[in-house]
Amino acid sequence: MKTTMNGTLEITTPLHIDEARQPLVQAQGVRKSYGPIEVLKGIDLSVQAGQVMCLLGPSGSGKSTFLRCINHLERIDGGRINFDGQLIGYAQRNGKLHEMKPVEVAKQRRGIGMVFQRFNLFPHMTALENIIAAPIGIKKIPKARAVAHARDLLEQVGLGDKASLHPSQLSGGQQQRVAIARALAMEPKLLLFDEPTSALDPELVGDVLDVMQGLAASGMTMIVVTHEVGFARNVADEVVFMDGGVVVESGPPSAVLDNPVHERTRAFLENVI
Ligand code: ADP
Ligand code: MG
């Protein structure tokens, strides 16, 4: 598939090969450059619904960029990303693919939640207000329903008694759990995590990972960039090791983490464990 100058796509392969078995996320040959520097050099990855993929790799290998491409925060320069049967950034109209309009982008993004290293909560809002803002403002959910759902989510992340506190009154780990609840409030089909525990004091990491493990057990589809090898071993269905903008190796945790084939993977794991 090629992008033409006017932003339409020339389809050279069928878009819907087998709907039933189609992964929820499928990246094929994804390329991304910043100026002359190519940071993603043809990434092929796919995640089935209900599965957890952990993305590991040294700093600068392109992990965040890849997540940002899925979530419309960056535009890819080549390849394609299919999400839930639709190409990221492209809509089908009159039998042709066109670049999505902002309103279509917003709709697609609603199906994808993202949790960042820095929790990015609104500082002037309580935990509860942070969680209900998007459901009310964007999804137009009635306030009473949004509040009831937010209270359930706060319970789920172990913060049922913290609804009326502001971010500054919460620990980093608690703030991150509010951020997870906030992402869940939009009922996403996919959750992206970009080093969700890297900014936390070590004693606060476990509570956040426990919440994430619970989500995984409940069937949430997740792509998690993390250096927490223990989490990847316990929770991931697939572990991917990236370096220098390419996937070096991928497979079940027992293969990639315990019997890595590539020297680069081995060297990385020796440093993080
Ligand atoms: P990782 O998350 O694996 O640490 P990133 O995806 O953040 O890697 O970065 C990959 C490479 O792209 C790095 O060399 C980084 O400096 C570069 N990069 C990331 N974002 C930008 C940007 N907005 N402009 C220019 N270069 C960038
Ligand atoms: Mg990063």
From TrEMBL:
Pfam families: ABC_tran. It is found in: Cell membrane. Gene3D superfamilies: P-loop containing nucleotide triphosphate hydrolases (3.40.50.300). GO terms for molecular function: ATP binding. SMART domains: AAA (SM00382). The keyword Cell membrane applies. InterPro entries: AAA+_ATPase (IPR003593), ABC_ATPase_HisP-typ (IPR030679), ABC_transporter-like_ATP-bd (IPR003439), ABC_transporter-like_CS (IPR017871), MetN_ABC_transporter-like (IPR050086), P-loop_NTPase (IPR027417). The keyword NADP does not apply. It comes from the Bacteria. This is Polar amino acid transport system ATP-binding protein. It comes from Paeniglutamicibacter kerguelensis. The lineage of its organism: Bacteria, Bacillati, Actinomycetota, Actinomycetes, Micrococcales.
